[in-house]
């Protein structure tokens, strides 16, 4: 599992796409933090809002485009290996579960590191790292990574997961946030499986996202176990 | 101990039964050749053993453990058919990554040693995307042995290689066997299997039609030993009796001047024939015996 995780992690950092994504995130974090104080002058803020002002930039970005980022880098993490049959070198050496988990942890580590660097950059201005917001954001990413792995296992065509990644990535936040607040009982139950619903409270309900991720990984594992490669 | 054992192992795709209830055992230390034409079902069979695909019915065990089993994988080396490697990794990176995945991380020295064995010593740092077909195949074999597995599955290890490389690989496979590995390889090349394998199964349409050592297979098919005899002129008086005797002893008798060709079904007949010639006071200058090659057997079936 750790070997796969390491490989996945290194792979992500080697790609040009990931470097651009990370740089973009870092630049947004840096400048939004830098200018947040300037911008917020003249706006009435509550104490907690004022406290979180520095992280607004990166939060907005990950809330709105997080799935798109994760998907663009990792949508084909499993199905590409199925298509190119490199997966055969993995499944003949280790359990299928450790392949799924290895990929999951590898991708998580990549985003964990990226997010840490972003938050450290922000702390230059805010003079502190907001651990709670960091964990909330990470829980969102963990949910999204698990979802992407699940889709990559279910859907065999990388071009399809790419397409789906863009569609879902663009609509997910809007739909998710709408679901969280809608009173339409026919659809509002769906909010319980979207990650946003668990981010609005300032408590540890965000842990639900990690639980949902575990469930998605378990499903992915069961499907992958039955797959012939 | 049987390193590989299958019981009624079968595989169907829809209504097509590709592998038909195969019972097979392979002993430790064997270099087992699975021979069959394209489409015979060789890859389907080997892929079931290596856990790439699953049997429709029947069971198998590897190293005494019922499969599929994740623990056994660590002691198994596999070169599957038609598998591309990672084009963005170098040969060296492949060996490091894959050996670590098998739980037996290879040192740089070990990687170089194995690259040397397959003839890729000068290409360790090259990205596999730039490799030729033959080089990829060699790396495919290298990755199958890098972690020093007990049992090695090779699906057509030499197909598509130039003759020189093919010989290098065949020698390598033989050496692996000498070092105590059990090797299960498939091939559609008779001469290769004939040359290196200690046990051979001939597969056709998803069934094993014959199994044994090369000698056993030959013995079974020995009904077609062609004997060519060069002899001194046969005295007129003896000609009729000798030819009559020969015709009863064998078949396809062709007579030429002071030589003849005949097909017999048993090696012992050759000695009897020589005695018959002697009794007729005919000297024998030369006896050429042509045993059937596996190719004849193979094509016959
Ligand atoms: N996934 C599959 N679906 C349907 N038929 C298959 C599949 N894989 C192999 N076959 C069929 O099984 C037969 C045996 O194939 P294979 O095992 O690859 O033969 P070999 O390796 O001996 O050349 C072929 O007729 C092939 O078309
Ligand atoms: Mg084949």
TrEMBL record, chain A:
Keyword Membrane on entry: yes
A Pfam family the protein falls into: ABC2_membrane_2
Parts of the chain that traverse the membrane: 12-33, 53-78, 99-125, 131-156, 163-181, 204-224
Keyword DNA-binding: no
Keywords: Membrane, Transmembrane, Transmembrane helix
CC per GO annotation: plasma membrane
Coiled-coil residue spans: none
Domain of life (superkingdom): Bacteria
A GO molecular-function descriptor: ABC-type transporter activity
This protein's name: ABC transporter permease
TrEMBL record, chain B:
SMART domains attached to this UniProt entry: AAA
Residue intervals of the ABC transporter domain: 4-230
Keyword ATP-binding part of the UniProt annotation: yes
Example of a GO MF term: ATP hydrolysis activity
Top-level taxon of origin: Bacteria
Keyword tRNA processing: no
Database matches in Gene3D superfamilies: P-loop containing nucleotide triphosphate hydrolases
Assigned keywords, A-Z: ATP-binding, Nucleotide-binding, Transport
Record-stated family: Belongs to the ABC transporter superfamily.
Database matches in PANTHER family: ABC TRANSPORTER ATP-BINDING PROTEIN, ABC TRANSPORTER ATP-BINDING PROTEIN NATA
Protein name: ABC transporter ATP-binding protein
Taxonomic lineage: Bacteria, Bacillati, Bacillota, Bacilli, Bacillales
């Amino acid at each position: 599992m750790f070997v796969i995780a390491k490989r996945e992690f290194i792979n992500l950092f080697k790609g040009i796409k990931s470097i651009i994504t990370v740089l973009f995130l870092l630049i947004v974090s840096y400048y939004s933090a830098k200018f947040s104080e300037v911008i917020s002058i003249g706006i009435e803020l509550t104490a907690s809002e004022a406290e979180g002002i520095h992280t607004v930039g990166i939060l907005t970005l990950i809330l709105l485009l997080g799935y798109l980022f994760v998907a663009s880098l990792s949508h084909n993490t499993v199905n590409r290996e199925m298509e190119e049959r490199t997966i055969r070198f993995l499944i003949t050496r280790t359990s299928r579960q450790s392949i799924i988990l290895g990929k999951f942890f590898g991708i998580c580590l990549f985003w964990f590191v990226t997010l840490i660097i972003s938050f450290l950059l922000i702390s230059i201005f805010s003079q502190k790292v907001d651990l709670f917001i960091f964990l909330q954001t990470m829980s969102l990413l963990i949910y999204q990574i698990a979802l992407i792995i699940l889709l990559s296992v279910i859907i065999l065509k990388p071009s399809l997961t790419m397409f789906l990644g863009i569609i879902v990535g663009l609509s997910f936040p809007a739909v998710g946030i709408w679901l969280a607040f809608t009173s339409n009982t026919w659809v509002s139950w769906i909010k319980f499986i979207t990650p946003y619903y668990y981010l609005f409270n300032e408590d540890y309900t965000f842990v639900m996202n990690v639980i949902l991720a575990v469930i998605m990984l378990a499903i992915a594992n069961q499907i992958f176990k039955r797959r012939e490669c | 101990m049987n390193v590989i054992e299958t019981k009624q192992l079968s595989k169907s795709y829809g209504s097509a039964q590709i592998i038909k209830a195969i019972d097979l055992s392979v002993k430790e230390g064997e270099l087992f050749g699975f021979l069959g034409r394209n489409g015979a079902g060789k890859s389907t069979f080997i892929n079931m053993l290596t856990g790439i695909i699953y049997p429709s019915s029947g069971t198998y065990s590897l190293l005494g453990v019922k499969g599929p089993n994740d623990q056994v994988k660590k002691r198994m080396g596999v070169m599957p058919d038609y598998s591309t490697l990672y084009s963005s990794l170098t040969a060296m990176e492949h060996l490091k990554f894959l050996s670590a995945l098998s739980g037996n991380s290879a040192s740089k020295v070990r990687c170089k040693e194995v690259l040397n064995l397959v003839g890729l010593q000068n290409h360790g740092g090259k990205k596999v995307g730039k490799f030729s077909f033959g080089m990829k195949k060699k790396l495919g074999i290298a990755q199958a042995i890098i972690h020093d597995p007990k049992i090695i599955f090779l699906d057509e290890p030499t197909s598509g290689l130039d003759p020189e490389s093919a010989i290098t690989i065949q020698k390598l496979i033989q050496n692996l066997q000498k070092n105590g590995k059990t090797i299960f390889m498939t091939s559609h090349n008779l001469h290769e299997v004939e040359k290196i394998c200690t046990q051979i199964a001939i597969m056709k349409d998803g069934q094993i039609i014959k199994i044994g050592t090369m000698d056993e297979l030959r013995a079974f098919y020995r009904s077609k030993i062609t004997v060519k005899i060069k002899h001194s002129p046969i005295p007129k008086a003896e000609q009729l009796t000798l030819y009559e005797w020969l015709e009863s002893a064998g078949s396809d008798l062709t007579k030429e001047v002071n030589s003849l060709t005949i097909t017999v079904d048993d090696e012992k007949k050759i000695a009897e024939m020589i005695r018959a010639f002697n009794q007729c006071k005919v000297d024998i200058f030369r006896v050429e015996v042509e045993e059937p090659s596996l190719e004849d057997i193979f094509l016959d079936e």
